[in-house]
Every structure is written in C-alpha cells, then in structure tokens.
Amino acid sequence: MKRIDSESIFQLVNKKDWTKIIEIFKDNDNYNFIINEPVLKPLIDKYFIDELLTTNDPAYKHCLTNFYVLHESPKYVFKLNENNYRKLIVKIVEVEKDLATAYNYATIFKDEPICKKIIEQYQRELPKIVQHSQESKLYVTENKNVSSVNASISLFKSNQEYSFYKAIREIYPTYFVIPNVSLNAIINFDMISNKLSSEEKKYFFGALIDCVVIDTENNYKPIKFIELDSHYHDKEKQIKNDKMKDNILAVAGLKLIRIRPIKKNSNENDFITLIRETISIDVD
What we know:
about 280 residues; alpha+beta; elongated
C-alpha cells in the first residue's frame, strides 16, 4: 500500500470514510507512521473514536467490529488506548442485536452499565444448571421461571382411550406399548415417499397412531399398529385422513388394525376379549 500522508488521514476522518481508514490501519507501516507523527497521533488518541461513534453509516456495526479485530489481532500494530477501547466495546454492545454476541463483548468491560445489563439479560435466558455428582462427565440444565400452574394434560382424550391402551398392554405384557406415536417416528419416509400423493406426504408428518406395540428385544422395532375409532371418524375430514393413514401404512408394508366400539360403555375387559380374539400375538 502507498505510504499515507497526514492530510489524507485528516480528510478521511472528516468524511468518516471508515472503510478506507480500516484498510490504511491494517498496513502496519502506515499505522507506525501515523502514531509517530506529532499531528496525527493526538487525532487518533483524542478524537478518532469519538468521531467514529457519531457515525450513521449503514455499515457502522461492521466498522466497529473491524476496529475491534484490528485492536485484538497480534498481526496488526493498531492499538487503542484503554479509554477509547472501552468506548468502542460499549458502542458495539449497544448496537449488537444478537444477545449472545453482545454478551461476548459485554464481558470485556463488565462494570459498564450497558454491559451489566446485557450480561444479566443473557444469564436470565440461560437454562438453570443442575448440580450433581457427575459434573465432570455430564452437563445438566433445566428451564427457569417455571409457573406454579401445571398445564400438562393426559395423553388420552377419554377414559375409553385409556381403557383401550391398558387392554393392549395387558395382551402384550412382554412388549412395550406406546400411545399416540408419530408416523415419522416409526416409518422410513424416504423409502415410501415416491409412492405417496403430495397430500399424503404432507399428512405423514403430522399423523399419529393410537397405539403401537414395540419389541424391546429387537432394537425397539414396532410390530403392531392399532387404532381406536369412534363416531368422530364419521366426519368427512377424518374419513379422508383415515384413508390416507391406511394407505401410508399399507405402502410401508404394515398392517393397521382399527377397532370401533359399538357401545360407548365398552371397557377394558371388552377390549381385552376383542383383541385376543381378532389380533394375533405373533410378530410376523
């Protein structure tokens, strides 16, 4: 790079052309000239950063971080005095919208009010660290600000659904029965996608199966797929969804059993009797 002169530096600072100034400061020979020049050195020490902080350039944040890199990198001679470096960091923290990035800068001058604020905000949003005896091997956190209101709900929408689940669990005591299982969790979409319509593909990722019997001794492979139907399944939209679900499992080479109680008061024993009579316990 061509050796810079004093007048050029004054003009660039006056124009607030920080992009060009950054390139000049990256050249160590030029910067050595500047800090050893009796007129320029006071400009850099006393006015340079203040001028920078009054800039409204769209690339302002980029310029700030570039000066930070210049100051921190051992490959550059450029160094700000302590006061100017503090001003630079505070301004970066003020304009940085990403909280994690702002936090990293804020830790440089933790005593500055804006830095304290960002550090506190960042730490509030971090999950709570759980202390335990295996801290050298495992890191455990939990969410903060947990409300006193318990809004959890049962996996089952009715007592009959729960009775249905318990009946299947009774029939398959040596297997693992899971309610409300996502198709995406038990079927390889890539293997069947070319055989599905666009609507079926979309439905696939939101559909559930009421009960799935899992063989825990065979890499948790699902072996039985059972649905509990009701009058709700007579609605037009649900009929359409049921047909799509039936086809998806058929394409995947899986048999889906649908059980529909005729009476609303069907209980666990009724389901046990029905399942034993109609659904083979083999794992073919």
